[in-house]
């Protein structure tokens, strides 16, 4: 045998038996490289403008649109379980939806009102709001359209900037632009600074793909019907691209993002890893509605173990380099971690 055999992993047997460390729970725990804690979780909720409403979302079993009473109970549960942030997604009355999504700028609209109520009742709970027009537009797109139906960039950024200011003035802790317009992070950051809103954090949906996995979310916020057969490919990223995600993240960091996000999550863990390695900034992933629906559906059929799959899927985000995960499983996972 040549001397190169000493570098072959096979030649190392039996000196190296990787299974030794896997034999007992204590040594598995001792050498575990990554772990999940409640601190890593952000819980997204669908908010209705009502006191005691509770509407299950058919395509997301276990998830409901909720009125104020349930929302406040949910906020309390986040605090009990140590989940740091609640992310609000409004379900806007169809009668308030317009082509320009003007309701997004109403300082007494559902989102700013809810932010004020939550921050006064639960000041220590982090609150995050979505900056995008799709819950407010009659066409279900995230921005303004020109005559041909193309989503205008700079005109949309001007509106999103005002939307972010309304949310920040209501006291939200984190604004999260999910629209994928060019230049919106810089415009929002400049506007926040100019108003003295220097503490408002920006979590940028930096690498957000035009994904089929958002389907159940669009049912939940009621934009699916408005969007119809249209898609978001002229602003959200092409699922075939990876280098482009790094360019998007670089722009958002340069424009003033405090945290960046990759979305969807599980099918895009390669992007999470590349972003973390390249930039070393706080990096988040969104385990989106369709990912949640898949796990729930399989579990309901008895095809997957719900708890084990949920925990493994969340841990996988940490291993891929994410600092945290937005997940509809956040409360259930935090409860298991506490048990
Ligand atoms: C829209 C928005 C979407 C999600 C979060 N913000 C849907 C979309 O872009 O069409 C999806 C979240 C999910 O699927 O859980 N601005």
UniProtKB/TrEMBL annotation:
GO terms for cellular component: cytosol. One of its GO terms (molecular function) is porphobilinogen synthase activity. Transmembrane segments: none annotated. One of its GO terms (biological process) is protoporphyrinogen IX biosynthetic process. Keywords: Heme biosynthesis, Lyase, Magnesium, Metal-binding, Porphyrin biosynthesis. Pathway: Porphyrin-containing compound metabolism; protoporphyrin-IX biosynthesis; coproporphyrinogen-III from 5-aminolevulinate: step 1/4. Mg(2+) binds at residue 248. Its EC number is 4.2.1.24. Pfam families: ALAD. The active site is at 208 (schiff-base intermediate with substrate), 263 (schiff-base intermediate with substrate). It catalyses: 2 5-aminolevulinate = porphobilinogen + 2 H2O + H(+). It is an enzyme of class 4 (lyase). InterPro entries: ALAD, ALAD_AS, Aldolase_TIM. Belongs to the ALAD family. Homooctamer. NCBIfam families: PRK09283.1 (NF006762). This is Delta-aminolevulinic acid dehydratase. The lineage of its organism: Bacteria, Pseudomonadati, Pseudomonadota, Betaproteobacteria, Burkholderiales.
